[in-house]
Amino acid sequence: MSEFKPGRIERVAGPVVVASNMLGARMYELVKVASTGLIGEIIRVEADRATIQVYEETTGIKPGEIVERTGSPLSVELGPGLMNQFFDGTQRPLPVLLDKGGAFIRRGISAAPLDRKKKWEFTPLVKKGDTVIGGDVLGEVPETVLVKHRILIPPNISGTLKSVVSKGSYTLEDPVAELETNRGMVKLYMMHSWPVRVPRPAREKVPSDTPLITGQRIIDFFFPISKGGTAAIPGDFGTGKTITQHQLAKWADAEVIVYVGCGERGNEMTEVLETFPELKDPRSGQPLMERTILVANTSNMPIAAREASMYTGVTLAEYFRDMGYNVALMADSTSRWAEALREVSGRLEEMPGEEGYPAYLASRLAQIYERAGRVKVIGSDSNKLGSVSIVGAVSPSGGDFSEPVTQNTLRIVKVFWALSKPLAERRHFPAIDWLSSYSLYLESLENWYRTHIGPEWSALRKDAMALLQRDEELREIVMLVGPDALSESQRVILEAARMIKEDFLIQSALHPVDSYCSPEKTFRLMSLIMKFYEKMKAGVGKGVSLQRALDLPVKEEIARAKIHPSQAFEELAKHIETNMEQQFQSLSTELLEKPAV
Amino acid sequence: MSEERDVSVVVREYSTVNEISGPLLFVQNVKGVGFGELVRIRTPAGEERRGQVLEVRSDLAVVQVFEGTSGLDVSSTSVRFMGETVKLAVSSDLLGRILDGSGNPIDGGPRIIPEDYSDVHGAPINPYARTYPREFIQTGVSAIDGMNTLVRGQKLPLFSGAGLPHNRVAAQVARQARVKGTGEPFATVFAAIGITADEARFFREDFEKQGAFEHVTMFINLADDPAIERILTPRMALTAAEYFAFKLDMHVLVILTDMTNYAEALREISAAREEVPGRRGYPGYLYTDLSTIYERAGRVHNAKGSITQMPILTMPHDDITHPIPNLTGYITEGQLIVDRGLHRKGIYPPIDVSPSLSRLMREGIGKERTRQDHREVSDQLYYAYAEGRAFRDLVAVVGEEALSARDKIYLKFSDDFERRFIGQGEYENREIEKTLDLGWDLLAALPESELKRVDPATIKQFHPKYRAGTGK
Ligand SMILES: Nc1ncnc2c1ncn2[C@@H]1O[C@H](COP(=O)(O)OP(=O)(O)OP(=O)(O)O)[C@@H](O)[C@H]1O
Ligand SMILES: [Mg+2]
Question: Which bound ligand lies closest to the C-alpha atom of B331?
């Protein structure tokens, strides 16, 4: 029994329950609702009344039934067993729920997030007598082949270690150290818990100068995101939000991926579960699932838990950041999260803002994205860095980007990948619109690209973008007055832009090779296309017929280059360059021998 | 404590209705009423109706009445709270039967002996329990099989408009859909949601004509039936379908038509509750509500059966950005667009393949599922058709003379594609090989150098030019 006097239910409306006799209840405190003990969270307190959002179906709940306080807020368990695991929005492990209750999630079923019985190989990295502070590494557990789980002293405590266990295997219920703090002796375990709505502390935020390499050409080349950065990917249905998020979860060079399926399809989560274990990380060669955590609250699961799922996901991400890792979080879709806010707000009869969303939509969104960033983590090592990058999908109703969720998100995030319906209908994937997308990290990342990929990176990027912009203007002219209105040199631009689109921007997520493109290959591929463009332009300027240039066999070689593996690309690029040189050379020689009439 | 147990066993009857608003009753001085429970209402005329609790307060219950509130009054209407949720009596006997939108038989047949009672709201499938759908269903319709392949466990809606032949398309799919090489048990569950009696009759006669009515269950709510009952009808159908699929191991195709009428009913209730409306007056929770219907499709571990959904909706003013098709598209795994332009040209089925999409296609096709050239053929057909259509637009501006010889080939291709590939007979059941070969015949009109989406080796194997050469 809990130490608090139980409250009484007064009202039930969908996911929202109001209870009286709740004096002393705190905001965001967890409660157990009715005899079935449904988990809920207090979201409003007025005198002795508390309004509760319930994480499960409230069918059958009656006024008069009791509400029990737990005294603690909604929290997640942090410790070994998170990796490669699949949770719902409040961190219930879905595989365990399946074992316990079958294929359908019945109400009132519960399970501990982390396995208490499993033994982990723990290697201590501190010893008796050491003084430690929150964030220090107590020891390590090789959790998966890809992730070494660093056991951290929980934030907000410090002291002197009175004892530390020796290397060996322990469960999460075995204490691994004892810490003498100024508030007494504390037992430390490999696991601790943290309230999801409270950001985990960091020493300070630091600017990011490193891109999160995604293996997607249009992103890495034109609109990069930094490690610790924020990006939004809005698009109407079927334009490729989920596939892009999956692509990032697969290929981004982060050490840990947290994938939050928030109010979307069940089958898409299944797809991740079935495909990720088969895919190999391009850097380590290990199965991608070994660095991935899935959080899923699909559209048909209770809506309040959907609201919580984002916080659950971000807290897990911050925890691995605190170990000194680069973590990338994908949220598909933040619009469904915002709808959960709207739903609960509506039941609270709050004053609605635009399109019925609560007035605090903007600030809640900002709070989530604010938890991204590259930071100096807490702990004794003042130079240890970690990062959380957040990529949020946005699903604007009617595909209209002027709606509140898209607009409020764009005010916060630094990268905007705009998905275009016309491109998707033409099966141009990824359907990221190169003219309206942007990245505000270009400048801060420039140095990295120059030193790691090539000094010409920025110039190449600018030239290619200018060409695409020119292409757009010219195509408008064609639509108005027909293709005959264009000069030969203007056609050169159209043809070069077509090459950029078809041979570079289009990147099939489904192609075994093309799915991932290293930044080196991305850069080389674009240089080949731009070189071809320069030669084509020069040739046509001298009187070579455009058609002859387009018919050169090397153009076909460029077109097929993207399905050539990244590792062996340089060789192919050199070969293509030689051919290009020779074939254009022979065109000009021909011209000298038979001058055009 | 004991007091609470008492109220839950005693059926509570009240005649304390103090307000009636649209489809809602407000009942005062109630005690021990649970959220979401089933309510039976006796009208002053002695007729019985059903309802469901939408909200409860200490002494007030808000009840939505499925058969509508006309004829109800505040003085002599009586309301009984049943202490349980709305349930459907499920049984294998449901096959071959016709029921109303609330699950009562209306075909004059015998009483259905229940094997179980299932809550019509179902429970969410644990995403960890799902099996990814990847088994090809041959519908015999080229626009679907060739270009937007349907797989077992998929939810693939028809987006249509008033007066278009979506019902004929859906009936053809229901008639012809088979998984090749299996004789596994199957069923069709059909939910009429506010459609006309003619439309419902069309489906019934079509099912009967095939002589396969013993595999069909129909739930019928017609245009002149109570509107609020439409909230129940698709859930009734899906509850039956879940029973067939996950208890009886059957492969079930569920047709729900017309989901637009469903959304209208939801809007009516929301308006009566004076909720803050979202886009165009539809409630803000329309997405979530629709997902509790559409997500009841799929396959799960440890069950042999599957639920494949084909919802039909008519887009108001043919507008795909309207909230109903838009939010549906956000939930389903693709969409088939029934297009007015093609219909006017006399093409049946008028499925516009360009904006249509089957998101589960890629897993359902290829070697051992359909044929190894499927992906490439459909990519090439898409490309060529889009190319041809773009020239159509250009011709409209600058005239056909401005086109090059290559452009003209594409222009002709797009016309042939519509006529011969998309167009087919309402009773024509094309094998997938036939569909793909037809695609090749059309592609053969293009210069071989244009076939860039197809691997040269695939061309050698399947292009008619080479096929003829191997002495076929
Ligand atoms: N990079 C890609 N490569 C190949 N195909 C793609 C790519 N991106 C998207 N597609 C195609 O587009 C379809 C829709 O993509 P996706 O499911 O990601 O859309 P979405 O924007 O998430 O839609 P919704 O909002 O309805 O969830 C996919 O099924 C696939 O056919
Ligand atoms: Mg998606």
Answer: 1
